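Section 5.1 Outputs to date
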Amino acid sequence: MNVLNSKKVMNVFLFLICTYGFSQEIIKEKEPEKKSVQQQTKRQKIDGIIATVGDYIILDSDIDKAFLEIEGSGGSVKDITRCQMIGKLLEDKLYAHQAIQDSIVVKDEEVKEKMNQQIDYMVEQLKSMDNVVKYFKKNNEDEFKTELFEILKQQKLASEMQKKIIDPIQITPEETRNFFKKIPELERPLLGAELEIAQIVVTPKVSDLEKQAVIDRLKEIKKQVLEGASFTTKAVLYTEDPGSRSSGGFYKINKKTPFVKEFKDIAYSLQEGEISEPFETEFGFHIIYLEKIKGQDLELRHILMSPKISPNALKDAKDKIELIKKRIQDKEITFADAARTMSDEKETRANGGTLVNPKTQDTHFELTKMDPELYAQVSNLKNGDISSVILDEDPKAGKRFKIVMVTNKIEEHTADFSKDYTKIKDLALKEKQIDAIAKWSEKKIKETYIKINGEYKNCIFTNNWLKK
């Protein structure tokens, strides 16, 4: 189900507290008085309003919180000044304020759903809600949830406002060419080494006996609930969905919620209080208990169980992929043809096993930005080399075996207009978007009530927050 992929719980919260991407307020600001980080984050003074942007305020403690969140996640704050931090906070508040002025609507239900997903992940990592509250130094659960909700809502407003600014912006081939021409030859960007990769996947087959065992177990749970047992308790005890285990299998969904079709089809076929029969999705087998229908929104609980793969099935899958690798190495079949005819991965099978980079939506993977697990599998391969057989743990499919081949290796090189047009176009578009945001900010700062108090008036900002 909707399982977050972050590896550290603090990374989730850090993302929410505007501690990344100091898009404009990152250089030139100066501290009115040089202080150590310890002094910055442990100052004993009465918390007060240090800035106002439209309907939003910034407290002195907001800056301290941001520093603490960075340090708590293992990040370094030695190069970030309080002036830089308030500059980023001012920027975020301006986006959120203008989003409201432009009647951009963010539904509370969407924010709550996102909040619940974040909390589910935090609870999973820290083992209990009490631990989450203590970790973030809040007095109680309500205080934590209230603050998280406001952070998420402002983040969503700011995101929608930025999207509204940059979405209409397009770049033409002529603009791309002019952008590249104006870069001095010695200053043209150095593009890192890239790989194009293909893979063949063999998934161990689950026996009908194992599937039936899971179906029978889910039917027994349904029977127990109908006889008076708590579905919520059963979900906490038995579901294999980490995203909803702590909440007793609870989800609130609508027709647009990005769940698999089979799950939504069954959910929308139920009546309030009804429990489905066991059904299968790519994640395993489920039963759904529909609690409430609110218009097009459903409040439900589910239990997910996956059939176990036998040792014999694992051995058969490994033997199969080793045979495929040998046939490719013996020139009986090409890697691409083997992928098309024998790979169990439907997403890559039609393209001869070629992987698409989820970040760029093309087939190139830059070595320095590659997922660490994939990097470990391919970094030592040359063009045409095939990896050893890899036992892979896929969140959806479970255990599977794969072999990987580097189909093209592009060495580090200076950007070339004809060879690297797509990347140059992206850079040109990014520059145009940044210019648009800068012009928008300049205009809105003039039109918006902004007040900065106390020592922060001495900061030097890249934006004209002080309206001098």
